[in-house]
Design brief:
By secondary structure, the protein is an alpha/beta fold. The protein is built from nine helices and seven strands, in the order βαβαβαβαβααβαααβ.
Amino acid sequence: MNLGIKGKIALVTGASKGIGRAIALKLAEEGARVAVVARSADALEKLRSELAGDPSSHVAHAVDLMAADGPAQLVAALRAGIGEPEIMVHNLGGSMGVFQPMAPVADWQKVWQYNVGIAHELNQAFLPAMKAREWGRVVHLSTLSTSTYNGAPAYVSAKCALDGYVKAVNREFSRHNVIISAVAPGAIFSEGRHFARLMKEDPGALEDYFKNHLPIQRLGTAEDISPVVAFLCSDQAAFMAGAIVGIDGGGM
């Protein structure tokens, strides 16, 4: 299937490892010119060298997007270099170590900024040009936890806000063929994260999780996520405005 994104400029945040890395590789396979962003310059350069196509058509920007001026730095760098993205994949997300329900408001705000705020700042910068050209694709990374409500409260609340954001902002832009969507991964193997640690430290607990919560009986991988994201970035996703696509192995 031709996804219709050859030559289009695609921005992927959180691209140095895991799901973000797999998405960047997949978009490059489909012919996109990819701008990869994360904090680690070395990891990004290694990734850039592995992207399909001419390496000079891709760029890597080592930016801490949680810094107060991080998103503005990235916007300026893209506009001065590869140009305005036509595709954006917002891959940042996590609990930021904030697990207590009654954590200070400042901690909750930090989690919201990481999971929603940064994406909104980048959308503010780049969606107007997508609207003007009558073509754009924006994919956010949500989570199964917005259905199960399992997980750190600040994180779950932020991702629930993200789902509402996708649905509401889409109403303004979809009429201009700027399709805003999200994927909601379930239990994914990612080195250093919860399920990867469980696999090493308590395989019995993981088996119990499979038995009670995951009918497919295995963890997902980044490569299970990336083709779905690539499809949502494509011409073929033109009627998927506001879609939040579960990729969770039937998780519950």
